[in-house]
Amino acid sequence: MSNQTGLKVCVVGLGSMGMGVATSLLRAGFETTGCDVSEDAMARFVSAGGRAIANPADAAQDADVVITVVVNAAQTETVLFGECGVVEVMAKGGVVLSFATMGPDLARGFEERVQAQGLDYIDAPISGGAGKAAAGQLTIMASGRPAAFDKVRPVLDAIAQKVYELGDRAGIGASFKIVNQLLAGVHIAAACEAITFAKALGLDIDKVYEVITASAGNSWMFENRVPHILEGDYAPRSAIDIFTKDLGIVSDIGRDLKFPLSIASTALQMFIMTSAAGMGRDDDASVARLLAQVSGLELPEAPGRQ
Predict the structure, then answer these.
(1) 177 given a catalytic annotation
(2) Catalytic one among 177, 199, 207, 258?
(3) Phi, psi of 118 (to 5 degrees)
(4) Pairing with 239, which of 82, 192, 227, 267 sits 20 to 30 Å away (CA)?
(5) Is-contact 143 165, C-beta < 8 A?
(6) pLDDT tens, 73-96?
(7) Is the pTM of this model over 0.85?
(8) Class of domain 175-295
C-alpha cells in the first residue's frame, strides 16, 4: 500500500505494544521505521515488512512523526534528548507522540524542551493491551496543541479506535492515564485475590470464571487476566513491574496532593511483594501466584511447566 499521507514515521520501542503500533502503521501504508534495543524485535518488524535501525537518531532521521513506546519517563528522556536522541534529527515542524505513562509535570517538561527545538509534542498515553495495539484499536488519552493533532491525525487513525483530545497542553493526557492505571492496578490485584480466594474455598475456578464474567462482580481486568491464571501462562503481556511503576506514580502524586489512596496503596504493595518474590518480569496476573504461594494453594500450570 502506498503512503498516501507522505508522512515518515519512526516508532521507538518494539515491545508488545510498540510492535502492534508499528505493524498497524505498515498496514495503513505509512513509511515506518522501527527501533529497539532487541535485535529479535527488530528482526520481527523487518519480517512484517518494516525497516529497522538500532540507533534512535538514525531511525528518526528526517522523520515527520516519532512515536516513543517505551516504559517510563527516564527512557523517554534518553530517546528524545540522549546521546542518540531523536529531537535533533527530526524534520522541522515534526511531532513527537509520547506514549509512556509518567507524571504530568514530567510530560509538561518534555513538551517545553521539544517545542524549544521547533517541534511539537503530544502527551499521548495509551490503553488497550497488546491485542488492541496489534489490531490498530488502541485508546489514546492525548493532550497537546491543536495544530499538532491536525498534523498526525492520519497516524492516530491508523493505530487507535478512540482518540480523546483532552486539552491543549501536555500533562492532561498523563493525568487521565494515571487515573486509568489506578483502576487497572486495583482491578488486577482484586481479580487475582478473588480467583485465589475461590480456589481456597474449594471451587472449580474455571466455573468461577464463567459465572463471574456473567455477573455484576466482573471487570475488564478479571475477564482479561484470569484466563492467564487458568492456563498457567504467565508470559508477560503486561509485566508486574509495569504496575509497580505506575501505581508508584499514583502513590507519589497522591502524597504530593495530600490525597488518601488507601486501596491503590494496598494494590501497590501486592505488586511490590510479587516483584520481590522474583516475578517482576512475569505477567501481572502473577499476583495470583504470590497469593497461592502464601496460602499453600496450587494453581493450574501450563503443560510441560515444572
Answers:
(1) yes
(2) 177
(3) 80, 20
(4) 82
(5) yes
(6) 999 999 999 999 999 999 989 999
(7) yes
(8) mainly alpha
